Amino acid sequence: MRLLDIRNLNIELLNLDQPVKAVESVNFSMYPSEVSGLIGESGSGKSLIAKALVGVLNNRWQVTADRFHFMGQDLNKMSMQKRKKIISENIAMIYQEPRRCLDPTSNIFSQLEESLPESYHSGWFNSKKKERVRKCIALLHKVGIKNHNEVFHSYPHMLSEGVCQKIMIAMAIAKQPKLLIADEPTTALESSTSLQVIKLLRSLNQLKDMAVIFITHNLNSITSWADTINVMYCGQLIESSSTKKILTAPKHPYTKALFDSEPDLSEQQNKNRTKLYALKGTIPTLQHLPIGCRLGPRCPNAQKACVIIPEPKKIKGQTFRCHYPLNIKELK
Question: What is the largest CA-CA distance in the chain?
Answer without folding.
Answer: 74
